[in-house]
Specification:
heterodimer, A: about 300 residues, alpha/beta, Oxidized Rhodanese, domain 1, 2 domains, 5-stranded parallel beta sheet, 4-stranded parallel beta sheet, 11 helices, B: mainly alpha, 15 helices, about 70% helix
Chain lengths: ~300, ~400
């Protein structure tokens, strides 16, 4: 091998060895605008408010329903591999398509989508930084027609369950049987046990409070006013302040697992830490029998 | 010289118009609001103007038919439904490419259809004939200066409480298992549109055949002066109002939510009743229902509240410009009937999750069976109400 060739080879090896943090997991609204007609790119909107996608979405974007298409509402589980394959085939996605996700509510559900795509091993997934909010602020146009892309036959990889935490994994950290840091991304009032659920949402757990030892880092602290993620430097500092520095594995949780997939994305994909998302979250943990909680406010569910 | 009273009238109309436009601009850039709030206000104002100008009123549609054999208002309603049906189909086709795939168009008022809508419709129909207007009718008359409308609206709040008290058992026994029928998912877009337009045409043909028409006014040559007078001063024919409402219904569905005037009234009634402590804290299944269900808001007014405010102001604007704004005290009997009718309106609108606008108009335009069932209930209630009025007078 000639000298320049080996230099190039070394450079490629170096690039490949860089942590996930250096990979491009975010794309800008500008980039999406410039790639609307790129056949290798498919944009998916994952919004939760009804009618948001239909009343206007990024041109050519396929709408994905979080409740039924990225989760299994009957078994309360992530979407099955078979349903995921069907969804992606219908959206015209192949193994080598670059998938760009965005949505409403600060990309919460787009981040859930990203997590699912990672679990099923899709190679190139991105989040459009800022989501609908930034697109709207920049006065970019919306489209109201539902696109139809030629269907494909998509095959999902075996699920990578190392990205997902289950109740026993959380308990193992609580009982200090395994190392780990828990990050609670809900509002401070939910963390403190003053309220059972955020305003406007009925309580789905009969206990208030948080998982013992969890650090409170509300998801809202990870984003800027325009919905974009803060800089990696700021994010690293934000988590370091509560002692989460990537030296021990992290588990994120919220109420139902969607806001925590947003923080999972920050910690795992932007900072490159070892992170699992606990999608059972407080609605599972807070209701589980015989598991310890911390409830600083001492609020007791009255059963009314 | 311009008489001073007309001067005041025009100044007041200009003030209302300026207020509406300024509020629209402010809402557009207000934090937490935005273009849909602004659109709701202006759409509400347009709705109020159309209602006032064309005296588009569901109560008169039925009452005039039964008591006076006057078919005009009823024809206006049929026109609105036909125009709106076409408009909704255009939107549906863009949003839901295949209606048989099992996805419902989001936010459309496609609700479970069962006998609770017959009951709600009958109560509402009776109430609107007694109080001289449905909920939207009372709202636009409020804008015209009617002082009996507040009695009807107060009754509506009480009726909402009554409806809320029976909601939970009604939901568990009837609503939760009632079928949600969206005609396009059974007949396709072309089939359902053809079927619905044919049915509306048949109803129109029956009205034209069996109800006497009024002889048309002699036509005047249209000059600018005559055209202005026709638009701003004379009332619009009911069919013209119907076209406008069909178009507005489509616009509202495309941009915000289907037309409806009871969501915010329901929310306010519930908040008031809950504060007084006699309403159930939890209403079963309400989160899952399509229609004018009360929506939580962190603001003083929800977007539906903004729409209703726009409606009242739009009606006031049109009435001021036409010289039809007058504080009408009304007779005591009118107040009593309005209040009693209002209770029935509120009860019917609560258990049907909407009124003649939200459940009937926006339901039928959306090709939901629920709209037609509610209409059947309305007809029976209004017929009974007309009989009652005849006996009372």
């Amino acid at each position: 091998m000639s000298a320049p060739g080996s230099v190039l080879g070394t450079a490629i090896l170096l690039l490949a060895a860089l942590p996930a943090a250096a990979q491009e997991v975010l794309v800008t609204t500008e980039w999406v605008s410039n790639n609307l007609n790129n056949p290798k790119v498919r944009v998916l909107e994952v919004s939760v408010d009804p009618g948001v996608y239909e009343k206007g979405h990024v041109e050519g974007a396929v709408g994905v329903k979080w409740h039924s298409e990225l989760a299994d509402p009957v078994s309360r589980d992530i979407v099955s591999a078979a349903s995921f394959e069907k969804l992606l085939s219908r959206a015209g996605i192949s193994g080598d398509t670059t998938v760009v996700l965005y949505g409403d509510n600060n990309n919460w559900f787009a981040a859930w989508g990203y997590w699912i795509f990672e679990i099923y091993g899709h190679k190139a997934v991105r989040i459009m930084d800022g989501g609908r909010k930034k697109w709207e602020i920049e006065k970019r146009p919306w489209d109201t027609t539902v696109p139809s892309h030629p269907a494909t036959t998509y095959r999902a990889a075996p699920p990578n369950l190392a990205l997902r935490a289950r109740l026993p994994d959380v308990l193992s950290v609580v009982e200090k049987r395994s190392p780990g840091a828990l990050v609670d991304v809900r509002s401070p009032d939910e963390f403190a046990g003053k309220v059972f659920a955020p305003p406007g949402i009925q309580e789905l757990a009969i206990r208030a409070g948080h998982v013992p030892g969890a650090r409170s880092v509300p998801w809202s602290k990870t984003v800027n006013e325009d919905g974009t993620f803060k800089s990696r430097e700021d994010l690293r500092k934000l988590y370091a302040e509560v002692g989460v520095d990537g030296k021990t594995p992290v588990i994120t949780y919220c109420r139902i697992g969607e806001r925590s997939s947003h923080s999972w994305f920050v910690l795992k994909e932007l900072l490159g830490y070892d992170v699992r998302n606990y999608d059972g979250s407080w609605t599972e943990y807070g209701n589980a029998v015989g598991v310890p909680i911390e409830n600083p406010a001492g609020t007791v569910w009255t059963g009314k | 010289m311009v008489p001073p009273r007309r001067w005041i009238r025009w100044a007041a109309a200009a003030l209302v118009a300026a207020g509406l436009l300024a509020s629209g601009l402010i809402l557009h850039d207000a934090p937490g609001r935005g273009r849909s709030a602004s659109f709701s206000l202006l759409c509400g104002a347009a709705f109020g103007i159309v209602l006032q100008r064309s005296r588009f009123c569901f109560a008169s549609a039925f009452r005039d038919l039964f008591l006076l054999s006057d078919r005009r208002a009823a024809l206006g309603v049929l026109v609105a439904l036909a125009v709106g049906s076409v408009g909704y189909q255009v939107v549906f086709g863009a949003w839901v490419p295949d209606p048989s795939a099992g996805h419902m168009p989001p936010t459309a008022h496609i609700a479970p259809a069962s006998w609770h809508l017959l009951l709600g419709g009958a109560a509402f129909g009776l109430g609107m004939v007694l109080s001289g207007g449905c909920i939207s009718g009372n709202l636009y008359r409020l804008g015209e200066g009617s002082l009996t409308a507040p009695a009807a609206l107060a009754g509506t709040v009480a009726g909402f409480w009554a409806g809320t008290l029976v909601w939970n058992p009604l939901y568990v026994r009837v609503v939760s298992t009632a079928p949600v029928v969206w005609l396009p998912s059974h007949l396709g877009y072309a089939g359902s549109l053809a079927a619905q337009l044919a049915l509306l045409a048949l109803l129109g043909a029956l009205l034209l055949r069996y109800m006497p028409g009024l002889s048309p006014r002699p036509a005047r040559p249209v000059t600018l002066d005559v055209a202005c007078r026709k638009v701003f001063v004379d009332g619009w024919p009911a069919w013209a109002g119907g076209i406008a409402i069909g178009v507005l219904g489509t616009f509202a569905f495309l941009r915000t939510r289907p037309l409806g005037v009871t969501s915010e009234i329901g929310r306010a009634s519930r908040a008031l009743g809950s504060a007084m402590g006699f309403l159930p804290e939890r209403l079963e299944g309400l989160d899952l229902m399509a229609g004018c269900r009360p929506l939580d808001t962190e603001h003083l007014l929800s977007e539906n509240g903004i729409f209703v405010l726009g409606l009242v102001l739009g009606s006031a604007l049109a009435a001021l410009a036409a010289g039809e704004f007058r504080l009408r005290l009304g007779r005591p009997r009118g107040h009593v009937l309005s209040l009693a009718g209002g209770v029935l309106l509120g009860f019917g609108a609560m258990i049907s999750l909407g009124c003649t606008v939200g459940t009937m108009l926006s339901g039928i335009m959306a090709f939901s069976l629920s709209g037609w069932v509610f209409l059947a209930g309305l007809l029976s209630g209004a017929w009974g109400g007309a009989g009652l009025l005849r006996r009372l007078s």
